[in-house]
C-alpha cells in the first residue's frame, strides 16, 4: 500500500520556507507549538480512558454483580489487550498507514467504543471493549512516537518534552475520575448507579481529542519537518531488496561492547527464543492436567511468541545498535514488575477505596470511592514540572542521571508504596465486628467465604468478621443458602419482564416463597406494584443485575440474611483513613515519574529508526504483560486477606530493585553513552 505525504496531511507537506521558519536554533529555548497540540490530544484521550477505567471494576461488581475473580478477569483481558495492540498498531503505522492516519483511525474507534459503553446490554458492553482495544492499538504508540519526532537527535529538550507531555496526560487523568465518578453517584435511576452517564462523558472526551488533533495537525507537521524527521513519520513504498539495502544505520557500524554487558546482548535473543518454547509448554501442560483453564493459555502464549519475534528482530540488528536495543528489552522486565504493582490502582486499590476506605473530609469537599483514582494524576501535575526542571538542570551541569538509575529509584518507591498499603490493611484487619446468630445455616463453610475473615463463636452465639464486609462478599455469603426452586422463579421472572415498559407492563406471580419473605424492590427499580397476598409483582422495566441480586438475597434464611446484612453495615467501622491510599499513591507517583516519561524518551533515543514505532509498541507491551499478570493476581482478591495480597507486590518489587541494582554497570555500557 502506498501512502504519499500529501495523503497523510491533506494540505500537503510544508514548504521549505515554512520548514525553515520553524527550524530551531543551535541553542533552542522553549518547545515546538506542535508539542502542545499533542499534549491536548493526549489529555482528552486519557480523560476518556481513565474515566472509563475508574468505573469499570465497580460497574462489574456493583451493577453487573460480578464477584472479584470475574471482574478481575474482565479487567485483565481488557487492560492487557489495550497495551498489547499498540505493538501491532505501531507496526502497521511504520509499514503502511503512517502516524497521522493511525492516530485518527484509533481516535474514531475509541470514540465509538466509549459511546457504546453508555448502553446497558452485556453484548454491547463487550463490543465496546473490542472497539476501545482496537482503537488504542492504533492511537497510543504513534502519538508517543510523534512527540519524539518533534526533536532532533541529541536535543536536550527531549526528556523535558516527554515529562510535559506526560503531565498533560495526567490533567485528563485527574479530571476524569472526578467527573465520571460524580456522574456515577448523582445520575441514574438509583443513587450511585449512574455508570452509563460516566461512560458517556468518557466518549465526549475522546471526540474532543480527535477534533484537537485534526485542527492542529498542520502545526505538528511543520515542527516535525523543522527537526528533519518528516521522512520518518510517513511510510515509504519500497521493495524488499531496497528496504534491506537502506536498513543499516550509523550505530550498526559501531562495535558492540564487551564484558558482561556484551554477553547480555549476545545471549538475550536466545533467551527470548527459549521462553517462547517453555512458557506455552508450561501453560498447555497445566491446562491439559486441569490446573488452568484453556483460556488462560492464550495470552501467555501470545506474549511468548511476540518475545520470539523480538528475539528475531534483535538478531537482525548489528553491533552497538543491538546493544542499545537490548537495553530496552532488559529494562522491560523490571518495568513489568513496576506496572504490575502500580496498575492495581484500577482494580484492587479501586475496590479498597470503594469499600475499605472511609471518605476523607477535606473541608470544602470529601474524597470517596473512585475519586482516589485522581490522586495519582494530581501528584503528577504537582511534581512533574519539578522533576522536569531537575532532569534538565542536572543535564546542563553534566550530572545527568542515567536512565537505569532512574528506573532503580522507581522500583524502590513502588516497594515503599505497597508497604504503606500493607500497614493500612493491617489496621483494617485488626477491627472485629460481632452480631448475634443462633446457629449457622446448614452447609455453610465460613473458611471458604470472604478470604476466611468470617468467624463463629458457638459459646456466645456470635458471627464475627475481621475488617470490612464488602457487598460482593455479602452476595457470596447469601447465595449458597437460597432455595433452588426460588432461584428458578427469579430466572423465569427475568425472562418474563425482559421487554416490560410503562406502556406494556408485565405481571409475574411467585409461588412457594421462602418463610418470612420480604419483597425487596422499589418503584425506582421498575416496580409499579407488589401484591403481598397474591405474591404478584408488576414491572414497567426489565430486571437489572442489581435488582436481581436483591431478589436473590431476599430468598436466604431470614436469620442468616439479617446477621450478614447487619454485619456488613456495622463492619464499616473498620474502614481506614484515606491517608493510607494517598501515601501509597504519592510514593507510586514519584516512582512513575522516574520511570514512565523517562522510559518513553529512552525508547526514542535507543531504538533504531526503522523500528521506532514497533519498539514503542514493545515498550507499551510491558504494561500489557503487567496488566495480565496483575489482573490474574487480582482474581485472588476476596480469597486471601488484603495484607497478604498487598505484600505480594512489596516482595516482587523489592526483588526487582535488587537485581536492577546489580545490572546498573552493564546496562550503562550497553547504552553507549546515551543517558
Automatic annotation (TrEMBL):
Stretches the record annotates as Disordered: 1-30
Domain of life: Bacteria
Amino acid composition bias (Low complexity), ranges on this chain: 14-27
Keywords per UniProt: Cell membrane, Membrane, Peptide transport, Protein transport, Transmembrane, Transmembrane helix, Transport
Keyword hit for Transmembrane helix: yes
CDD domains, alphabetized: MFS_DtpA_like
Localization: Cell membrane; Membrane
GO cellular component, one term: plasma membrane
Record InterPro entries: Dipep/tripep_permease, MFS_trans_sf, MFS_Transporters, POT_fam, PTR2_symporter_CS
GO molecular function: peptide transmembrane transporter activity
Biological processes, Gene Ontology terms: oligopeptide transport
Transmembrane parts of this sequence: 47-65, 77-93, 100-117, 123-139, 160-184, 196-215, 267-285, 297-315, 327-355, 375-395, 407-427, 579-600, 612-631, 643-663
Record's bilayer topology term: Multi-pass membrane protein
Keyword NAD recorded: no
NCBIfam families xref list: yjdL_sub1_fam
Record PANTHER family: PROTON-DEPENDENT OLIGOPEPTIDE FAMILY TRANSPORT PROTEIN (PTHR23517:SF15), RESISTANCE PROTEIN MDTM, PUTATIVE-RELATED-RELATED (PTHR23517)
Annotated protein name in UniProt: Dipeptide/tripeptide permease
